[in-house]
TrEMBL record:
InterPro entries according to UniProt: SusD-like_2, TPR-like_helical_dom_sf
Protein name: SusD-like starch-binding protein associating with outer membrane
Signal peptide stretch: 1-20
PROSITE patterns named among the record's database cross-references: PROKAR_LIPOPROTEIN
One Pfam family cited in the UniProt record for this chain: SusD-like_2
Keywords (A to Z) from UniProt: Signal
Source organism (scientific name): Larkinella arboricola
């Protein structure tokens, strides 16, 4: 892993304006570390996290069956035929680089009288490491982020890291409760603007994600139940009614390099010109047809624009009438026959012309409700206050809200007798939870959706047209060649990695 030095323009952080990462993070001589205020570094770290998540979420959206590739481009065999090596999908370097920022904040907050920054930095550190484990399995943890002290860190067992992350989140909550933000520095927090209660709720929500990820692993039930009950006893609760997002109208600007990263990549530039990649992601045929079959057209029309895309003269609406017949998904991995004019594109839940300053979604409230539903369904004796049914139904409500659909549409599914929508009529409650979570994660959380697909095998999405073997799907990534070059002995100690069969510890089948 790289040793990185950090320098941040103080004025830009103080006024809270968004900046391109290159303006906020300048690499200098690694043997002569500059001094930077932890508050400035935290702002940069949070902004950098959104850039990192943008890339990994895109891959996850494809491999979870939400998105395919538009036919106006040469087919990517790396993504859609799974022909990749340890030189592809290197999220490792950028994640560890980002983690160095959070570790800097943790290590230097006390000395700078900014103790209130330690809690948020620890929460983000836990989330980033959880994502690294979900991508690679065993990774450096206990010896990571040591700078020049440890240049070849050992790899830790993935299950042990998961347990350590629960402990780290406990520490984060304790720090958050003990150290309210100084009012002059709330602007350095571009997620919750210094609201430590919401940070604690986010920490508990991440704990639920980490715990439920292990729910199918033999021998973990007692541990999971104990930790869930500890969350309830702690009392801060969970994120509800709103999503966790970074940036927003106070941070992103209508200036090149300062837009919301999603908008900047697949939407429009600062002048409102459509990006070249606007036609690249296409909603899959499986997703669109599944929503139509369930009568779930309110969410469909927020997930996707009708065929031929957004009407630039009336932002947020489609060029064609928004009726079901005008929504056509693209078969996963198909390379011809589905051009932009006759297929659906990323919808108004994600991109609307002119709305360059939406928050970048880090975690949705809908996901949290479905985590709670699964916890209560699996472990009826945990002290969570509501029923699995109540959490499930609230998850659908929060999904409608996040997509921008009328939430009354969620209530209409109660008693509808539609499998996987109406709790009472659903034949497999855990499957219903998994499928509704999969829908709710569309466009927002591709990595989480792909990870949950690997864990649950739900829904049964079609194989890529580029791959004749239906069982051949990636279950993880290779360790990148950059790490193999700089830390070869420890990478080699992990054995031979087969991305189609070397499963992570929570992926039991």
């Amino acid at each position: 892993m790289k040793l990185k030095s950090i320098f941040v323009f103080a004025f830009l952080a103080l006024v809270g304006t968004a900046c391109k990462e290159s303006f906020l993070d300048i690499n200098t001589n690694p043997n002569t570390l500059p001094t930077a205020s932890p508050s400035f570094v935290l702002t940069n770290a949070l902004n950098t996290t959104t850039t990192n998540m943008l890339a990994v979420n895109e891959t996850g959206e494809y491999w979870s069956g939400h998105w395919s590739q538009g036919n106006g481009y040469i087919i990517s065999t790396t993504t859609f035929a799974y022909q990749f090596t340890n030189g592809d999908f290197n999220y490792w370097d950028s994640y560890y680089d980002n983690l160095q920022d959070y570790q800097f904040v943790i290590d230097n907050a006390d000395a700078n009288n900014q103790k209130y920054l330690k809690g948020p930095a620890k929460v983000m550190k836990a989330m980033m490491f959880q994502q690294l484990v979900d991508l690679y399995g065993n990774v450096p943890y206990t010896e990571a982020l040591k700078g020049g002290t440890v240049l070849a860190p050992k790899f830790d067992d993935q299950k042990a890291i998961y347990e350590s992350l629960i402990t780290l989140l406990d520490e984060a909550i304790a720090d958050l409760k003990a150290n309210p933000f100084a009012s002059a520095f709330t602007g350095s927090d571009i997620v919750f603007r210094g609201n430590t209660t919401k940070w604690a709720q986010f920490a508990n929500s991440l704990k639920m994600r980490i715990l439920i990820r292990q729910a199918r692993v033999t021998g973990r039930e007692a541990y999971i139940k104990t930790e869930i009950n500890k969350i309830v006893t702690e009392g801060s609760g969970f994120i509800t009614g709103e999503d966790v997002g970074a940036g927003g109208s106070f941070f992103y600007l209508a200036t090149a390099g300062k837009l919301n990263p999603v908008y900047d990549r697949w939407g429009y530039d600062a002048n409102g010109a459509k990006r070249a990649l606007n036609n690249y992601p296409r909603l899959t045929q499986f997703l669109i047809n599944s929503l139509k079959a369930s009568g779930d057209t309110l969410r469909m029309k927020r997930i996707a624009y009708a065929n031929s895309g957004e009407n630039g003269s009336a932002p947020g609406t489609s060029n064609l009438p928004e009726i079901s017949a005008n929504y056509t998904g693209t078969p996963f991995g198909v390379s011809s026959g589905y051009l932009p004019a006759n297929t659906t594109s990323l919808g108004p839940s994600l991109i609307v012309k002119g709305e360059y300053n939406r928050p970048f979604i880090i975690m949705t409230a809908a996901e949290v409700q479905f985590l709670l539903a699964e916890a209560k369904q699996r472990y009826s004796d945990v002290t969570l206050p509501n029923t699995a049914k109540a959490y499930f139904e609230e998850g659908i409500v929060q999904s409608f809200r996040a997509f921008g659909a009328n939430v009354a549409g969620a209530a209409a599914y109660k008693g509808s007798k539609i499998n996987n929508y109406d709790w009472d009529a659903s034949t497999d409650k855990l499957a219903a939870i998994a499928i509704q979570k999969w829908i709710a994660l569309t466009n927002f959380s591709g990595l989480e959706s792909w990870t949950e697909y690997r864990r649950t095998n739900l829904p049964a999405t079609p194989q890529s047209i580029q791959v004749p073997d239906d069982d051949k799907r990636p279950v993880r990534l290779f360790y990148p060649n950059t790490e193999a070059g700089s830390n070869s002995a420890n990478v080699g100690a992990q054995g031979t990695v087969d991305v189609f069969s070397t499963r992570l510890f929570w992926d039991v089948d």
